[in-house]
Design a protein that fits this description.
about 220 residues; alpha+beta; M1 Pyruvate Kinase, Domain 3; 2 domains; two-stranded antiparallel sheet; 6 helices; about 25% helix; globular
Length: about 220
């Protein structure tokens, strides 16, 4: 029996300074679970912050969702069988949601809050720091098991255990799996690129990158 889509754990964290491989930096990837009601604000969950707002956070990356179903894959891949929820820096650990089939612009209602799917995660060195595995950065995108960033469409209150209600977008569907395909594949699916660029909910940095790729493909 398929589990009802729901949130099984909520994590928040504040930036702290760390040292890794002769590099000193601030990161909030290490998050801790919280119990009880959590306020959802426009740019994050209450008690959560991002360390570098130039690449993390903001309205297009306010909250990070990661399916619990991916943990088996990553535990096996990383040979780490002791991973607690929140190990990937996610705010929401879910069950019954396949992020790869979600489309940009789909909305998720949890408690009194409403979120919108915006983009897959493309990790930086801080994920490598988290697992002390530099090779995880490329492996993460190739796997397709990246989780998704959400914007907050309606502020509210959520808590672990609450059901997730999916409201599909009315726009043409560009799934998270298709976006990751555009990153991975050496050949360019021009029709898919066009559709993605026309997707209203896709953040502008993605569109800029896709326009550049589209132009290069047209030249060649």
């Amino acid at each position: 029996m398929t589990a009802k889509p729901s949130v099984i754990s909520i994590q928040v964290g504040r930036p702290r300074q760390v040292s890794w491989r002769r590099r000193i930096f601030r990161t909030a990837i290490q998050k801790s679970p919280v119990s009880g009601p959590v306020a959802v604000q426009r740019l994050n969950l209450a008690g959560d912050e991002q360390a570098d707002l130039s690449v993390h956070g903001g309205p297009d990356k306010a909250v990070y969702l990661f399916p619990s179903e991916h943990y088996d894959y990553w535990s096996s891949t990383l040979e780490r069988y002791d991973l607690p929820w929140g190990s990937f820096g996610e705010n929401l650990t879910t069950i019954g949601i396949d992020d790869r089939q979600l489309a940009v612009g789909d909305r998720l209602q949890i408690g009194s809050a409403v979120f919108e799917i915006r983009q897959p995660r493309t990790p930086c060195y801080k994920l490598a720091f988290q697992f002390d595995r530099p090779d995880i950065i490329k492996a993460f995108a190739r796997s397709g098991r990246t989780g998704v960033y959400l914007s907050v469409r309606r502020e509210g209150v959520i808590q672990a255990g609450e059901e997730i209600f999916l409201h599909p977008t009315n726009s043409p569907r560009i799934t998270i799996a298709q976006l990751l395909q555009l990153l991975r594949e050496p050949t360019v699916d021009l029709d898919l690129v066009r559709r993605a660029i026309e997707c209203e909910a896709l953040p502008e940095p993605w569109k800029i990158s896709l326009r550049e790729r589209f132009s290069e493909a047209m030249i060649h």
